[in-house]
Amino acid sequence: MRTGIVYHDRYLAHEQYPSHPERRERLSYTMDQLEEEGIFEKEEFLLITPKPASISDILAVHEEDYLTFLERSSVVGGYIDADTNIPPGLYQNALLSAGGAVAAGDAVLDKKVRNAFAFCRPPGHHAGKRNGAGFCYLNNMAVLVQHVKKRGLKRVAIIDWDAHHGNGTQEIFYPDSTVLFFSVHQYPFYPGTGGINESGTGAGRGYTINMPVPAGTSDESYEYLFTEIIAPVIREFSPDCVTISAGQDAHFTDPLISLALTTKGYATLMHKACALADELCKGRLIAILEGGYSVCGGLPYTNLAILACMAGLDTSHCTDPQAYMSAFPDRYNPRSFDHVRGMTHDLKKILSSTWNNIR
Ligand SMILES: [Zn+2]
Asked: Which of 8, 125, 126, 164 is flagged as catalytic?
């Protein structure tokens, strides 16, 4: 079966202002890269055109008052926080972005594709039930999860590898033991949350798993976290579907963050995620674009590599252009791995009361 690419030209319409980091070129450059590589002609891929999410899908996540606020503010424009204006027309663009996540989920559940990547904007993982924040308005991931659960899936795993903590997604699923939420993120950093002690509440205790990492963290630490924490816990959880909040701002060329993942590192993560989905849930995997601001740097290459992994193509040639690699040593922190090992040791103590595989 094929890999779905969810995209709509209106995903380029949203813009707070031309120099804002979350700008339309993030996506248009990626689409140019995919076109240049002939992705849209390959039989391994299916292009999927999304529709706006239904209001009932949105209200399964967000409070009605907040949705009304977004709709009204979108008429002439409005404001949420210093990073997050509401440009006119935002409401329809945000509904279409969430609809991209839903379309990816439907295509997988309808067996039109094996897995799918929604290249949607604006992103969503900082949006909570009743608020937007950090470039996000509607939580696309949470809308997807509630939608696939409505369609019959019982347990969903979310791996949020965006460089920022997925605080909105965490808030929405914090008491929920049917949704397993992992977040790997630079810490301390925006939004300030995501310490290892934030691990869920009530029935959801142990089902929120935060992996804060220091500046300069690179591929070896992410692979270590996958092997030590993510894979054993997901196996025990046994999800019906694996989802990825795919933020590519942990790449070493990203201008907003100080992490040091490479394109190859991202490909390895997606390869491992797909292998887990194959093992546990018939390959059902849905990725949603979150952050990633290295518009002219690593972002298009990383998105291409991730997509190629999802389709089972050979990704050995998917590396960062040599011209960028000169920036890597300045970003990479050789001591970060020791720090991550120490954090993992402490995190395992917290998780061991929930997960047998971590004992
Ligand atoms: Zn981010």
From this structure: 126
